[in-house]
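Quick start: read one record
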Amino acid sequence: MMRTENKLKSVSCCVDSVLFSQTPVAEALFPFNTPKYTVFPGFCDVHVHFREPGFSYKETIETGSKASAAGGYTAVCTMPNLNPVPDSVDHLQQQLKLIDKQAVIHVYPYGAITVGQQGECLADLEGMAPDVIAFSDDGRGVQSDDMMRQAMLRAKALGKMIVAHCEVNSLLRGGYIHEGEYAKKNGHKGICSASEYEQIARDLKLVEETGCKYHVCHISAKESVALIRQAKKRGLDVTCETGPHYLVMDDSDLQEDGRFKMNPPLRSKEDRLALIEGIVDGTIDMIATDHAPHSAEEKSKGLSGSAFGVVGIETAFPVLYTHLVEKGIISLEKLIELLSVNPRKRFSIPMGEDFTVWDLEQEFTVDPDTFLSKGKATPFTGWKLKGQCMLTVCDGKIVYKR
């Protein structure tokens, strides 16, 4: 991981003065000689959905990896809610073959924690361990305490991490947006914050018991931030992520449109401010997009009927740069730590010859019709942002050029 840290230092020690023309490899690859371009280490997203095998009408390894490159990402970790679920060596091999054939960047698959992500018996963790980045049942919380305990013990023995989607099913009660003011005013069924933080609290007790290396997916609630902050103070081997949309939007921004429906949902202003505080003080280690493409039909049924999930890998940096860095909430160096250095360090993902080049002054309006992803449902449609990706290089090869 020293190489990653050194690459960050070469960018962040004086990031505003790092010129594209000062990078010999980049200069040879890109025909510009001007101080307007800024070079960053390739971004790393530990939470994406590329939908193959099983749901290629939503996304493919090819379209997902090309969209990632367009967003400045050179490494991603793909979640296991696929068909077949990667819960055995044979099932995992189907995904690995697609990655080998189609991916233009580094794609690291997760193995499922339980067979079929059903939470009833452990998947073949031993068999999959050499070829997966970690284990997760993302999209579903593991409901059984004993099942999660067994998974943690097995993962620890294998030197792997448990990456948890935390959700108590009995507390969902048919909800589909945050149980807040918007839901009350507009007659929608709400999802309470306790459905997230109660399972985080359960898992943290199990981490303390088992000594497992543990990471929490897409936290959205202020109570979740507080629990993880306390766990870190107790010395537990715990990290977490949140998504760009949770940092710049809350349930007051909701509209009657499926592009605002994701799981966990956009919560209150107080939750958003707690997440920002967690970013600033280091409680939240990284930002992951939870890039979750669906078909236009699946996202056309409003808040109640649409599928959960929005796309975000092509807009993540501009959204965060415009609304966090430009507004003085965090530094540009801090943003690069959250998008590149910290996820690589935690998940042991090497940097390699990876970098991405940005025009930080370029303004644009988000238009999903220009996305390389098959998914077009984004809550940022029409937003005016700053920062456009001009070039992405992975392993010394150009994988995106504007």
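The longest strand covers residues 355-365.
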